[in-house]
Specification:
TIM Barrel, binds orotidine-5'-monophosphate, alpha/beta, about 270 residues
């Protein structure tokens, strides 16, 4: 088994900084890069991003939907991209946002097994079916040194209509569940997703014991100042940016420079 994901993430953040870059090959972005909206365009896009960033950023986060929409050839592109990114030293967080009853969740969690054709380091998951539904993924992650990021307080404007219901809120119950999974581990492998777009932090992350993935930067309006305001220090925050870095392509040097600008702004 590889080292626990929490430990590998902590080491990667120490060596490379906390920035995660999302690989989101939207059709308009492919067009802007002068690429066709096809598996070939997808492959050239993915190769350029991996080439530019896998040797320097801590985490790359491909969004599965953009590959699935090209069918089996799209998934083949993703397999190559993920293998290339991991070989270059980046951790790969597959943004799949999966969640289902336990027996099906077990199959989704197979992405964390080293012998999966699309083996990754960590997975985003949805808790909508209840905390117990995610237990097979927790078990697989523990067995194979993988990580999970559970949607808790997402970056989209109306997320609170579901996530803030109840006392404690649904989001807080998600955070409390994940805290329980991390209990007793030195660098927890289980994280939550909390958007950088929140006007205030309305969940208590105290003692979470694992990382926070913070999307919503750049294109969705969140800034490094928002991250500092929301999270302060003491929480391992992994800020993730997609469009605001990817728009700099297709030039590899320009992509690197865009990621470096974000890394520098986050370090201030
Ligand atoms: O889990 C995620 O990554 C995620 C959670 C969330 O609350 N909000 C959110 O935008 N995301 C993802 O983060 C990426 C955001 O992309 P940009 O807005 O272009 O930086 C997309 O792939 C979203 O699917």
């Amino acid at each position: 088994m590889s080292q626990p994901f929490g430990q590998r993430l902590a080491e990667a953040v120490t060596a490379r900084g906390p920035l995660c870059v999302g690989i989101d090959p939207h059709a308009p972005l492919l067009e802007k890069w002068g690429l066709p909206d096809s598996p070939d365009g997808l492959a050239r896009f993915t190769d350029a991003v991996v080439d530019a960033l896998a040797g320097s950023v801590a985490v790359l986060k491909p969004q599965l939907a953009f590959y699935e929409r090209h069918g089996s050839r799209g998934l083949a592109v993703l397999e190559d991209g993920v293998a290339g990114a991991r070989a270059a030293g980046a951790l790969v967080l597959l943004d799949a946002k999966r969640g289902d009853i336990g027996s099906t969740m077990d199959a989704y969690a197979d992405y964390l097994r080293p012998d999966h054709p699309l083996a990754v380091d960590a997975l985003t998951v949805s808790p909508y079916l209840g905390p117990g539904s995610l237990q097979p993924a927790v078990d697989t992650a523990r067995a194979h040194g993988g990580g999970l990021f559970v949607l808790a307080r997402t970056s989209n404007p109306d997320a609170g209509t579901l996530q803030l219901v109840g006392e404690p809120s649904v989001a807080q119950r998600v955070v409390d569940t994940v805290r329980g999974w991390n209990a007793g581990t030195p660098a927890g492998s289980f994280g939550v997703v909390v958007g950088a777009t929140l006007s205030e932090l309305d969940v208590d992350l105290t003692g979470l014991g694992g990382p926070v993935l913070a999307p919503g930067l750049g294109a969705q309006g969140g800034s490094p100042e928002d991250l500092r305001r929301l999270f302060g220090t003491g929480t391992l925050v992994v800020p993730t940016v997609s469009r605001d870095v990817l728009a700099a392509g297709p030039d590899v040097a320009a992509l690197r420079a865009a990621a470096q600008r974000w890394a520098a702004a986050l370090a201030r």
